[in-house]
């Protein structure tokens, strides 16, 4: 391990520990109110801040040391009983916890100094603490906060002028679309200096062939500006699609980029380095990556991203070379989100290692049985089943390493509830139950934001202001409940409030207004409440700065669906609302139903399958022509032929089966050749090449070595419903 | 030498019309003097026409010169570094 690697590893550990410490600090701040001087809470809080400061110092993270020092001083005073805790003080301290976390995350992303914004936030937060500090200490505060970091920051070049070469070829239709290239150039001149401009008229035809409304001119511009490349790029946002806009760092700027890249932290990805240096924008990198994928597909070999950037004139070769030099070497191409380290319960790790040991022994003994008892099949079978049992246990045990109590997520809601209720001038108590239910770490992280959204919604729109609550005979103080429990292989998380509940009539009225529902349509309660998840749907008369109930709920649903979960609403007018999220326990394994089409295999998530029936040859609803629908016990069931959908050759089996799947109450049949039964499977995520494949969520490898695709039922059903609607509309229009 | 005055805007709105006006003169190889003193607006389409006219005239051994330019036209020609190419 080289020095650099060791440092990087140690820094990873620092970041992991610091995140935990910040959590402790925040909890401590929340508990500070009502704690007496010298109490365990204050002591623990002081220790956490002290440790944070100490370890930041070890890594030379001066900006964190300076900031935490002031808080440490303050807590020390509290600890010694020289400073009394007030609610105002807690309010001033809470954002400091957030800020420290931001600084730590900055370190995690490779910054060892504060950005100018972070510096000013530090100063602002510390100045708000100042009034609480006694005179003698107050003098020390500006000292610590105002001390500017003496070393130059990464963004130094940002403040300087940079030179660019712009090569602009506007689309033929630009003029017709009302986009005058000269107007863009004039605008450019307002945010920078056009040093030189050349009109390229090579494609201007002779008079006889001239179409006066077509744009033929191109421009080469030498340009100097202080704004970042992405801002220059965004000027051309409206003509991007049809035009060829290239923005290249000017030749004389190359050296300074090379130097700047030298000072940047290493990264797995060359694109990140180039974006951070300002030589390329995120969009340019994304476009180049798309091109790289296309090329790779047609050439069957991977074209380096750097080559494409050079060839497309996006970044000069020397700059790409510098970035390549900075790219972290092989073996560290971990996916971005998995670069975090994970703290694991030692006992669980021991258990896993034990199991692996047992597995090795069982495997060896199976080998012996195979060699000696060749004639006796029962011995082999027994050895085999022992290995199987152990493999299953190892798998479960390995998965449990990623399991953490959901309570860690719930804890942050104390803060959310406190902040939001203060802002809204409501009194709300938070009751958390089931915090020890365990969930996959990755899932916990990703469900956090949707939960925050639901909690904020409940506080903002569910729970009434105290006066209104009293008028309705409720206690002035509202209650928000967070609850989690395991239920049949899923985790259920509930956000429940005792507020005003959803108004069914109002939702329906709004939906009709917005054309989501036909007037006079008869909907079940569940269908009505489902409407709040439509994009942009809100019944709130005024949209507060927190979001109306409905605003952003589509995002919540999308996030939940992305985790293969569902969300349902239970509400009662005047009594309260419960949002219930149901998620699979882990993202890595699903219970699937294996089906075959021709020689291909597909896996349908078992929790989406409601039943399997035979495709009745005569049961296709007559008179509807080519529409793929069948009669299922008197109901019309649309179905999808997987053979057609995935373009699989060959004749369908004589007797085909239909797997009926359900998503949000909508049912669709999947026509397959063979049903092969339940199958527990480890999901292998698909590579980025398949990012546009909508109806497939992953793949797995079967025992016989074949690959089976895992169907994503949500988009499949939605897609089918859309097609049905179009077909239906077409049929009605013709009639 | 024929003098032709182009008024109002020299933009995409009038582009087709302007080209039609110029065509007869250019077709006959007339030396043309364009008076742009009264032009109130000019865009890429207008600029293109001036460049094409100049080129067409050269092809037929004739000339197109600018007899006068309004401030807005002069400003554009300077900005695009085309003053020299178009005025003479």
Commentary on this structure:
The complex is a heterodimer of chains A (735) and B (88). Chain A has 5 domains: 3-139, Four Helix Bundle (Hemerythrin (Met), subunit A) (Up-down Bundle); 154-328, no CATH class; 346-404; 406-584, Heat Shock Protein 90 (2-Layer Sandwich), CATH 3.30.565; 589-734, CheA-289, Domain 4 (OB fold (Dihydrolipoamide Acetyltransferase, E2P), Beta Barrel). Chain A is built from 25 helices and 21 strands. In chain A, a hairpin with a 5-residue loop joins strand 20 and strand 21 (707-711). In chain A, helix 4 runs antiparallel to helix 5 (116-129). The longest helix of chain A is centred in the N-terminal third of the chain and has 30 residues, at 3-32. In chain A, 31% of the residues are buried. Chain B has a single domain (2-87), classed as STAS domain (Transcription Regulator spoIIAA), CATH 3.30.750. Chain B has 4 helices and 5 strands, in the order E-E-H-E-E-H-E-H-H. In chain B, helix 1 runs parallel beside helix 2. The chains are: A alpha+beta (735), B alpha/beta (88). At the A-B interface, helix 9 and strand 2 of A face helix 1 and helix 2 of B. Chain A: This is Chemotaxis protein CheA.
How widely separated are the two ends of chain A? 75 Å
Major β-sheet profile of chain B: 3 strands, parallel
Low-confidence stretches of chain A: 136-158, 329-338, 541-551, 621-625
What order do the helices and strands of chain B follow?
Answer: EEHEEHEHH
Number of helical segments with 4 or more residues of chain A: 25
**Helix share of residues of chain B?**
40-55%
Q: Name the overall outline of chain A.
A: globular
* Strands in their spatial order, largest beta sheet of chain A: 6-8-9-11-10
């Amino acid at each position: 391990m080289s020095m650099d690697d060791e440092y990087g590893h140690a820094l990873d550990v620092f970041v992991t520990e610091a995140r935990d410490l910040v959590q402790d600090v925040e909890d401590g701040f929340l508990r500070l109110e009502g704690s007496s001087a010298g109490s365990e809470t204050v002591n623990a809080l002081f220790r956490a801040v002290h440790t944070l400061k100490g370890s930041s110092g070890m890594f030379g993270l001066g900006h964190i040391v300076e900031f935490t020092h002031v808080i440490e001083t303050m807590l020390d005073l509290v600890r010694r009983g020289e400073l009394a805790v007030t609610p105002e003080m807690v309010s001033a301290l809470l954002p400091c916890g957030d800020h420290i976390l931001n600084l730590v995350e900055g370190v995690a992303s490779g910054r060892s100094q504060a950005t100018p914004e972070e510096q000013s936030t530090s100063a602002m937060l510390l100045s708000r603490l100042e009034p609480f500090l006694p005179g003698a200490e107050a003098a020390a505060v500006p000292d610590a906060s105002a001390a500017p970091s003496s070393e130059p920051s990464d963004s130094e070049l940002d403040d300087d002028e940079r030179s660019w070469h712009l090569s602009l070829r506007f689309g033929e239709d630009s003029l017709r679309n009302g986009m005058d290239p000269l107007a863009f150039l004039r605008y450019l001149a307002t945010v920078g200096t056009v040093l030189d401009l050349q009109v390229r008229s090579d494609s201007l035809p002779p008079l006889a062939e001239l179409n006066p409304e077509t744009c033929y001119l191109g421009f080469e511009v030498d340009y100097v500006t202080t704004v970042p490349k992405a801002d220059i790029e965004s000027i051309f946002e409206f003509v991007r699609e049809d035009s060829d806009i290239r923005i290249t760092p000017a030749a004389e700027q190359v050296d300074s980029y090379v130097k700047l890249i030298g000072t940047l932290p290493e990264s797995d990805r060359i694109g990140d380095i180039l974006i951070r240096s300002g030589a390329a924008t995120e969009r340019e990198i994304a476009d180049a990556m798309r091109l790289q994928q296309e090329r790779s597909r047609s050439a069957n070999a991977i074209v380096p991203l750097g080559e494409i950037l050079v060839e497309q004139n996006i970044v000069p070769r020397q700059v790409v070379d510098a970035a390549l030099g900075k790219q972290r070497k092989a073996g560290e191409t971990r996916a971005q989100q998995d670069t975090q380290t994970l703290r694991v319960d030692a006992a669980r790790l021991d258990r896993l290692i034990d199991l692996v040991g047992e597995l090795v022994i069982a495997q060896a003994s199976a080998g012996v049985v195979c060699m000696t008892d060749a004639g006796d099949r029962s011995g082999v079978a027994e050895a085999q089943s022992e290995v199987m049992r152990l493999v299953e246990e190892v798998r479960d045990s390995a998965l449990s390493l990623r399991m953490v109590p959901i309570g860690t997520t719930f804890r942050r809601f104390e803060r959310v509830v406190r902040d939001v209720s203060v802002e809204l001038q409501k009194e709300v108590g938070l009751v958390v139950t089931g915090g020890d239910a365990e969930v996959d770490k990755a899932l916990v992280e990703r469900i956090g934001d949707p939960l925050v959204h639901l909690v904020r919604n409940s506080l903002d729109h569910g729970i009434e202001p105290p006066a209104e609550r009293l008028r309705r005979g409720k206690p002035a103080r509202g209650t928000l409940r967070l609850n989690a429990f395991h239920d049949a292989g899923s985790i259920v998380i509930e956000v429940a409030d005792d507020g005003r509940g959803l108004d069914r009539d109002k939702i329906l009225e709004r939906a009709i207004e917005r054309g989501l529902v036909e007037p006079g349509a008869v909907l079940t309660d569940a269908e009505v409440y489902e409407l709040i998840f439509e994009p942009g749907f809100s019944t709130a008369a005024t949209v507060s700065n927190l979001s109306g109930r409905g605003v952003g709920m589509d995002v919540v649903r999308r996030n939940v669906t992305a985790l293969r979960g569902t969300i349902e609403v239970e509400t009662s007018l005047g009594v309260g609302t419960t949002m219930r999220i149901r998620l699979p326990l882990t993202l890595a394994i699903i219970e699937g139903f294996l089906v075959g089409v021709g020689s291909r295999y597909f896996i349908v998530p078992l929790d989406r399958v409601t039943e399997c029936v035979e495709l009745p040859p005569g049961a296709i609803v007559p008179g509807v022509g080519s529409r793929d629908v069948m009669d299922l016990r008197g109901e019309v069931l649309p179905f999808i032929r997987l053979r057609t959908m995935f373009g699989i050759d060959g004749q369908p089996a004589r007797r085909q089966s239909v797997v009926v799947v359900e998503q949000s109450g909508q049912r669709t049949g999947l026509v397959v050749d063979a049903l092969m039964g339940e199958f527990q499977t480890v999901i292998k995520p698909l590579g980025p090449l398949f990012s546009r494949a909508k109806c497939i969520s992953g793949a797995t490898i079967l025992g016989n070595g074949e690959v089976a695709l895992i169907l994503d039922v949500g988009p499949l059903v939605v897609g089918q419903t859309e097609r049905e609607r179009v077909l239906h509309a077409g049929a009605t229009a013709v009639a | 030498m024929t003098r032709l005055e182009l008024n109002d805007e020299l933009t995409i709105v009038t582009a087709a019309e302007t080209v039609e006006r110029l065509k007869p003169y250019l077709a006959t190889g007339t030396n043309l003097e364009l008076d742009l003193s009264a032009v109130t607006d000019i865009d890429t389409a207008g600029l293109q026409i001036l460049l094409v006219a100049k080129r067409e005239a050269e092809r037929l051994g004739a000339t197109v010169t600018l007899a006068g330019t309004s401030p807005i036209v002069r400003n554009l020609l300077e900005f695009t570094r085309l003053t020299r190419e178009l005025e003479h």
